[in-house]
Amino acid sequence: MFPSFPEVVKPKKEESPLKNPDNMMKLFLRLQNVYSKRPDTSKFTGALADTKFADEYSAEEIAKDNLYVIDTRNKIEEHNRAKGQEAFDRFQENFAFAEAGQAMIVDRLNIWMPGSTTNMTADCDDLRIGVDFLTTNKNSGHFGTAFDVTLSSKKNFINEKITKNWDNNIVKGSLPVVKYFEDPETGQKGRLLTPKFIIGASADDINDMANAYLTGDEKSLDNHPFRKLFFEQIRVQYNDALDFYESDENKNDARFSLARREYTRVKTMIDEAEKKLDESGDIDRLSYHEYSKESLTLQLINEFADKKK
């Protein structure tokens, strides 16, 4: 069975501004700085020459990856179309909504994390390893993010992602491979092993962001509680992973040395960003406390971590 994109909960107070096609186009144009930096797979031909990975970047292999994207998108579309026109229209609307949310968050992270660069991934990496965008820091490493717009009826959907990431990556000491990575500092193209984190935002969060961008007031989002929620969701996950790697049973196991190192580098990066945010006073602590209690993804991440203590 092919996956369905999570449904988007309707905002409580007013209809989403992104239901208006003109607004969606306006936002798309406003975020061209994000979309234009998405990796162009055609430019990776010949990458990693003279290495054991050179064959993966032949014109033929890249063409296969592009065909995989087309076939997978078509199958997902057919799966949702089979549910009826209303369900298909909702699927398309939700997909566009989530894509817009992802682009806005990428744009803000490039403000919220000075010294780091965040870019959307190529469609192939998105579909194959579930990494929607990638953050890199020349001093502190990198991490990939699987992003979802969430609502309460999708608990199983989110739990499945959290569990799959733990079982397939963390406990094996393995890291997902982003095939189409372009270093934001040097422009060098190739592959990258990166820790992966599950991140959720509510439909209300995305609508708040959209309203800010559409009115030219995106700087106001520096005070939005989602800014801290993003960091907290990652923090809980890397602490959980490091507790596993640094346990008496695993701390001397060479299988986990690479993963332990990369998760530690992410910890350094996020701890620094969160410390600066807390010192700035941009987020009201009491308001954030109440807001964070409504985050389904944070709740499920915490519950997953608590089960292993």
List keywords for this structure.
309 residues, alpha+beta, 4-stranded mixed sheet, 12% strand
| Low-pLDDT regions | 1-12
Q: Using DSSP, what is the number of strands?
A: 6
Shape designation: globular
Q: What pattern of helices and strands is seen along the backbone?
A: HHHHEHEEHEEEHHHHH
The strands making up the biggest β-sheet line up spatially as 1-2-3-6
Percentage beta strand? 5-15%
Helix content: 40-55%
How confident is the prediction overall: mean pLDDT? 91
Number of helices: 11
What separation lies between the terminal Cα atoms?
A: 34 Å
Cα radius of gyration in angstroms:
19 Å
Work out the count of structural domains: 1
Q: Main β-sheet, in a few words?
A: 4 strands, mixed
> Helix/strand-derived class?
alpha+beta
Describe the structure.
By secondary structure, the protein is an alpha+beta fold. It has one domain. It has 11 helices and 6 strands. Strands 1-2-3-6 form a 4-stranded mixed sheet. A two-stranded antiparallel ribbon has the order 4-5. Strand 2 and strand 3 form a beta hairpin. Helix 8 packs antiparallel against helix 9 and helix 8 packs parallel to helix 11. It is globular, with a radius of gyration of 19 Å. The two termini are 34 Å apart. The N terminus is likely disordered.
What's the helix and strand layout?
Blueprint: H1 21-30, H2 32-35, H3 59-81, H4 85-112, E1 116-120, H5 123-129, E2 133-137, E3 141-150, H6 155-170, E4 177-182, E5 189-193, E6 196-202, H7 203-214, H8 226-245, H9 257-280, H10 285-292, H11 296-307
Parallel strand pairs: 3-6
Antiparallel strand pairs: 1-2, 2-3, 4-5
